From TrEMBL:
InterPro entries: HTH_LacI, LacI/GalR-like_sensor, Lambda_DNA-bd_dom_sf, Peripla_BP_I. Gene3D superfamilies: 3.40.50.2300, lambda repressor-like DNA-binding domains. This is LacI family transcriptional regulator. It holds the Pfam family LacI.
Length: 348
């Protein structure tokens, strides 16, 4: 027996009209009430029925692309690459229409977009960026993705680790290995007092890059001070600026700072200049991702290159079924160390 709007209302303890307002998004509803309704929708696996013609069109034309922040070049590159694979070609002929969903990195917004895409009978979904490490969210995310796949949608994860089997097709990066090689590069130059600016806590990308960094420190016998010389923050310039100052407060003799990504590294460079420190003569700086501006920074930024465009393009082909899935459903793209002018031997 199919679940009705009244069933959802009873489970959430609200009126059917309130459920309708939440699902249609056409009337203000208190945040706590909205959360109860969406939780009931999820628990009861309720799917809204719409006009058959609209649903048929959506199932053949719509692919959702979830990003944390479309203004961030990291996500902009991936969204563009996915769209280039699924959208109209130069001759006007096309495949699907990409709908970019900006989550702001909020777990609840990610779940809401997946519910909305299921309601629209999306033909596919590509989720980009690191995953939130929260058991409750992981369970809710898995349930939504399974329902999307059961409804005929192809789901592809891009830039995040695989889910437990049987999980969606996955295109991921060797973040841990890239961070390890970056730290090994600094150690090979002679650095022994290294500060690390990690990304936000509770995200897979943050954890994997931090683990790679600490693996290299442990192998060199330098893990003892790693916790004290690690500062966590956002993936933005302000976090780099403030984090660099905090690391220098903790150890004024630092000779190198590794940043969570290239944008954070720009903030680090600004803070060091404001303190009258030279890069790399006084402090070496590294980033991660190799975004387009990294090579044009002054000095050019040593970083780890992620093949963002190639990986996302493959995700686009997989979501359309235009490429044979890899064995086990997981493709891991290697990373590449890009040694440039922002790193040198300490005290050069």
């Amino acid at each position: 027996m199919s679940v009705t709007l009244a069933d959802v209302a009873a489970r959430a303890g609200v009126s059917a009209a309130t459920v309708s307002r939440v699902l249609n998004g056409n009337y203000p509803v208190a945040g706590s009430t909205r959360s109860r309704v969406l939780r009931a929708v999820d628990e009861l696996e309720y799917v809204v029925n719409g006009p058959a013609s609209a649903l048929a069109a959506a199932s053949s034309d719509l692919v959702g692309v979830l990003v944390n922040d479309i203004a961030d070049p990291f996500f902009g590159i991936m969204a563009s690459a996915v769209q280039s694979e699924i959208g109209p070609g130069p001759d006007g002929a096309g495949h699907k229409m990409a709908i970019v969903c900006n989550t702001g990195g909020l777990p609840e917004r990610e779940l809401t977009y997946l519910t909305l895409l299921q309601r629209q009978r999306a033909a596919g979904v590509v989720l980009t960026g690191g995953a939130v490490e929260d058991p409750g969210h992981a369970e809710a995310l898995g349930a939504r993705l399974r329902r999307l796949e059961a409804a005929g949608a192809q789901v592809v994860l891009c830039g995040r680790p695989p889910l437990p089997e049987p999980g969606p097709l996955t295109v991921t990066f060797d973040n841990r290995g890239g961070a390890r090689r970056l730290t090994e590069h600094l150690l090979s130059l002679g650095h022994r007092r290294l500060g690390y600016l990690a990304g936000p806590a509770g995200r897979t990308t943050t954890r994997h890059r931090l683990e790679g960094h600490r693996e290299a420190l442990s192998a060199a016998g330098l893990a003892g001070d790693a916790e004290r010389l690690t500062v966590q923050g956002a993936y933005d310039r302000a976090a780099g600026y403030d984090g660099a100052l905090e690391l220098l407060r903790r150890d004024p003799g630092l000779t190198a700072i590794l940043a969570a990504n290239d944008t954070v590294a720009l903030g680090v460079c600004a803070a060091l200049r404001d303190r009258g420190l030279r890069i790399p003569e006084d402090v070496s700086v590294t980033g991660f991702d190799d975004l387009p501006f990294a090579v044009d920074a002054t000095p050019a930024l040593t970083t780890v290159r992620l093949p963002l465009h190639d990986a996302a393009a493959r995700a686009g082909r997989l979501v359309l079924g235009r490429e044979t899935p890899p064995p086990g459903g997981v493709t891991t793209f290697p990373t590449e160390l890009m040694a440039r002018q922002s790193t040198a031997a300490p005290g050069r």
